[in-house]
Amino acid sequence: MTNDIRNLLAARILLLDGGFGTMVQGYGLDEADYRGERFRDWNVQLKGCNDLLALTRPDTVREIHEKYLQAGADIITTDSFNANAVSLADYRLEGLAYEISKEFTYRPQIVTTPLGEASVETIGNEIVLATILRAGLPYHQGFLNYFDDAQNAFVSAYRKSTKDGKFTVKVEYISCGSLEGKTLLLVDPMLATGTSLALTYNALCEKGGTPAHTHVASVIASEQGVDYAMKHMPRETTSIWVAAVDEELTSRSYIVPGIGDAGDLAYGEKL
Questions:
Q1: pLDDT tier at 235, thresholds 50, 70, 90
Q2: Tell me, what CATH number does 189's domain have?
Q3: Does the model's pTM come out above 0.90?
Q4: Which of 74, 203, 200, 89 is nearest to 140 (CA)?
Q5: Are 28 and 79 part of one and the same domain?
Q6: Which domain holds residue 77?
Q7: Which of 11, 17, 164, 215 is deepest in the core (most CB within 10 A)?
């Protein structure tokens, strides 16, 4: 694809599409359009989160792209200018935390206010939120915005490459309290081979005990990574949540097309 674009650029000027947000404004979409059915009961206003329209109004997104193509654009950019944890935090759309929370058990709790008492449903699970340093930290923070009473656990794991291009995964540091009988949320943006995930899970269990249930949450996974995780983690007490599953891994075990190196995207390239 890169070579094709370079060849075209050598022959003529290529036209990029224009602003997406200004085109959206012309449709006069209201709050209900942004919410759609999936986010109908979302607890904050969503109007203005144009990236969300790819899920709730794909017909509008497609029509805008088609208009630019009809106008002569050669290159179409995705509706994802603000599709990052920092921007989406304004709308509480950082990740899959909301959907995962539907799987928890809830218990009534009496809350005393200055004017009386109210019975509210609160999460009955003891939650431990764990992530792999460093790439997982922005994702971890997004989940903390939902589960702000959760305990935290951190694991330092990295790939150690060999001269033949292969690698092994090393786990060096673990900060973890008790996991025994609790609900473990293991969040990592990328689930590539599944090796790091399985090693991290085993290391956490070795130090903190066995959780009652483990929820794995990733933005993008490979088919191989999902299969590996399910084979090397307890199937009956493990749930895997991913936004997208890609089919291919490179020879260096990067997901294709994926999103690149999640740590580099968040913090910049390694020195």
A1: confident
A2: 3.40.50.2020
A3: no
A4: 89
A5: yes
A6: 2-91
A7: 215
Give the span between the Cα atoms of 131 and 155, in whole angstroms: 6
Tally of domains in the chain: 2
- DSSP-derived letter for residue 247 is S
DSSP letters spanning 226-244: HHHHHHHS-GGGEEEEEEE
CA dihedral for 143, 145, 149, 154, sign (positive or negative): positive
The whole-angstrom separation of Cα 101 and Cα 86 is 21
C-alpha to C-alpha distance for 209 and 12, rounded to whole angstroms: 63
The torsion angles phi and psi of 111, rounded to 5 degrees, stand at -110, 125
Between CA 216 and CA 197 the distance in angstroms is 9
Helix (H, G, I), strand (E, B) or coil at 30: coil
Tell me the average pLDDT across 142-160: 82
